[in-house]
User: Fold this.
Amino acid sequence: MKRETRNSVYSGVRRISSPKLALPPGLQPNTRLKMDGIEFLGKLPAKSVPVAFFDPQYRGVLDKLSYGNEGANRGQRRAALVQMGKDLILEFLRGIDAALIPSGHLFLWVDKFHVCEGVGSWLAGTELGIVDLVTWDKETFGMGYRTRRRAEYCVVLQKLPRRAKGVWKIHNITDVHSEPVSRRDHPHAKPVDLQGKLMSAVSEEEDYVIDPAAGSFSVLEAARECGRTFLGCDLNG
Assistant:
């Protein structure tokens, strides 16, 4: 007997829904807000959004790998960005955790340094846990003393209760994704198509997608293409 699709973990039906979100003053959807990310997260109602993206500009990479802030030609734009220490990253992650609905997802961008070192300590005091990892092949060479960095990584985290069935509804996303991205306008631009696929897998049309450190606002572009409602900010707007 053929198993019914609705009983399979691979069902395309999403059985959780997001509450209607009454936005406080100062938070305009689908806009490049110029705002401190921690202030932004503090304005969001608790347990109100299904999906978040976060791309921390981690100070520790520049310190431990010793590039960027020494004025090396290819690292100048990266070093010019406001750097985040571990304590600030923890504050961001706790704010995101508070804003996510139960079983909501955070897509956390990291480089191979953090894949090797691990990000578990960043999750202290949250209900977030790692459930998957996507490798983004940028199709271009980056920095590196020994091997040149061609990939970045998106850690998939889910808030308790962690489950796939009835929550993750798209099942043809591969864990290695190739997508070239121009970094002419921002040194940390991220792949729009991949981010669109990820947000579509864990949300419905018109659902809110948040990004408290939006950088190039590639998540805004992805949300527009996928019919989601973007809500996010960056210090530089």
Q: What stands out?
A: The chain has one domain: 45-189+202-234. The domain at 45-189+202-234 is CATH 3.40.50.150 (Rossmann fold). The first helix runs from residue 37 to 43. The beta strands are 33-34, 49-54, 100-110, 128-137, 151-159, 176-178, 208-211, 229-234.
